[in-house]
From TrEMBL:
Any Pfam family matching the protein: F-box
Protein name: F-box domain-containing protein
A Gene Ontology cellular-component term: SCF ubiquitin ligase complex
UniProt superkingdom: Eukaryota
Domain F-box residues, every copy: 61-90
GO term, biological process aspect, one: SCF-dependent proteasomal ubiquitin-dependent protein catabolic process
Source species of the chain: Manduca sexta
Length: 392
């Protein structure tokens, strides 16, 4: 009985302990509920608050491209601040500055604009209709461009060698110093720039500058080409479009000294002949794109040289007025060719053009303004080249 009572006694004491634990737990839970009820629950955001929340905007802006975000940044200061806070919203954009409009802008406005370029990480600048004075004003108002700008383009400008020297001295766009070691592309359209200006390119830029486009530099001669090949031997893209004083000898220099070229544009170079194409075919073994628009002295012989280039993917022969059907026959052996333009070639016939069906890998064919291209020819080409876009 004592044992039984002792056992019962132990059970009773254990039961009291369990009861006390339950009471304690209940008391703690009650206090938590009481405390939780005392704290106000977060109120749902109103619409005008929600559209200003950074977490929402970070997702919302993803539905738009960089160009659209220019407009979104003008909705309100909050949206502008969020968009300006990260360069990721502006990838791929360049700043286009029309210097005629900038002449009437205040210095304060321009300073804010240049600061916004830095905040957005926009590293490409296009100066339109710039004069020597505009170049100097750009340098004065945007001194940080020396470290910030990676690519600069001059379009429709009237600058002289003096203006080009000023911007090169400041920006080091392939010139006399090292402030832009990461510059990889330089595009210039300036009618009065001479060979002397290209002497500012330094070998120190040879490792980074890969793309050089010189459009309508009418005063540029073979001497300027010498400066290019000596200073920039690692170019992969070169355009001399409209550099009308460059001759076959200049092209020979390019072919011998720029072995890494992948793209070459000699359009509107009237002094380029079949001899230049022979140099290109012999030395530029990795060339993938060649543009010869308006090279009026090119004949079937020159096209025959080009046809031996197995690396060529894109060939543009627009308005090559001496090209005949025999030259087209040469092209039919280019098994790597995917883009071909024969637009405006007046001597080509339907018979010659019909042979292009041999180019099974062709993806785009331009035959606009070809007198020999008849509706029947286009039907024939569409039938035999079903995967090719034919521009009529």
């Amino acid at each position: 009985m004592a044992k039984f009572l002792g056992l019962v006694r132990r059970r009773t004491s254990c039961g009291h302990h369990t009861t006390r634990q339950s009471e304690n737990v209940f008391s703690i839970s009650a206090r938590r509920v009481e405390r939780a009820s005392a704290e106000p629950s977060p109120r749902p955001l109103l619409w005008n608050q929600f559209i200003l929340e950074e977490r929402f905007l970070d997702k919302f802006f993803l539905y738009f491209n960089a160009s659209d975000r220019r407009t979104l940044a003008q909705v309100c200061t909050r949206w502008r601040d969020v968009l300006y806070s990260s360069p990721r919203w502006w990838t791929g954009l360049v700043a286009v500055l029309d210097c005629r409009e900038l002449r009437s802008a205040t210095g304060c406005c321009m300073q804010r604009f240049y600061n916004s370029l830095i905040r957005r990480g926009i590293r490409g600048v296009v100066l339109v209709s710039a004069s020597d004075d505009d170049i100097n004003e750009f340098i004065r108002q945007f001194p940080l461009s020396a470290h910030h700008v990676h690519a600069i383009s001059l379009k429709g400008c009237t600058i002289t060698d003096r203006g080009l020297e000023a911007i090169l001295d400041h920006l080091q766009v392939g010139a006399v110093a090292q402030l832009l070691p990461s510059l990889y592309e330089f595009s210039l359209q300036a009618y009065h720039v001479t060979d002397a200006a290209l002497g500012y390119f330094s070998p120190k830029q040879s490792a980074s500058l890969s793309v050089l486009r010189l459009h309508s530099c009418w005063e540029l001669t073979n001497h300027g080409v010498v400066n290019i090949v000596h200073s920039l031997p690692n170019l992969t893209v070169l355009s001399l479009s409209g550099c009308s004083k460059v001759t076959d000898e200049g092209v020979e220099l390019l072919a011998e000294n720029l072995p890494r070229l992948r793209s070459l544009d000699l359009s509107w170079c009237p002094r380029v002949t079949d001899n230049a194409l022979e140099y290109i075919a012999c030395d530029l073994n990795h060339l993938e794109e060649l543009t010869l628009d308006r090279c009026v002295h090119i004949t079937d012989i020159g096209v025959g040289y080009i046809s031996t280039m197995q690396s060529l993917v894109a060939l543009f022969l627009r308005w090559c007025s001496q090209l005949r059907d025999f030259g087209v026959q040469h092209l039919c052996g280019m098994r790597s060719l995917q883009l071909l333009s024969l637009a405006g070639c007046p001597l080509l016939t339907s018979g010659g053009l019909s042979s292009l069906i041999q180019l099974r890998q062709l993806r785009e064919l331009e035959l606009t303004n070809c007198p020999g291209a008849s509706p029947e020819l286009f039907d024939y080409l569409h039938e035999h080249l079903p995967r090719c876009v034919i521009i009529e």
